[in-house]
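Quick one: Class E sortase from Microbacterium bovistercoris, structure tokens please.
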Amino acid sequence: MTAAPPRRRSRATFASVLGELLLTAGALVLLFVVWQLWVGDIIIGAQNNEKGAALSQEWDRMPVPDPPQPTEGPDGTLVVPPPVHPHPADAEIFANMHIPRFGDDYDVNIAGGTSRARTLDKIGIGLYTESKMPGEVGNFSLAGHRTTWGKPFNKIDKLKLNDAIVVETRDGWYTYRFRTLEYVEPTQTDVLLDVPQMPELSTGERYITLTACSPLYSLAERIVAYGVFEGFQPRADGPPASLAPVEVATSSAEGAR
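--- reply ---
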């Protein structure tokens, strides 16, 4: 009987080991991307809504602020001006954002400043340094992520004419109504003017401007949503009708912009 030849030991070459390591590293990177762009966003977005809801509940437990007193308007009639808060410090939370089009649970903190490290990544929505305050004549201008870190402005392109954009503070609720949407270059900062893109014009109106990066996952442009002030409701009167849920149509395809 002829003896079987001895088995030859397989030796892992440097190239094969390196290939396996690269495959493993690639899989880990892919998992991180999936986490960062989808799973992490879902978790952070839910956490941001919970933080906003907690602040809303805290305000509800506080003594009800005195409503603003009527003043005489230009035509001699009495008007009730909305209260205007002092400009917040960097990363100081002063308000919550509610947009029924974005969901019944959408309740995101708004803080001073638009830096990623201190405000946009950690809190949610940031107030531009030169912005006016809620209810103040001029442009109340805000920034937020459209992807990652909870993406509070992810659905900004889904806003429809007259959709409510409601800003809640300790005093009550400021309701703005969405008017129009446009895309601009990142350098086009005149969208933040008191009258957006019209430096020589003074209207005495109260505007809101929401800005985010566009297209999705890109810094090439800015998507800008504009709204106009509708009214203020003191906390003593309870939540405004503008917070009522809206019917959101589902779509199988999302726009790239």
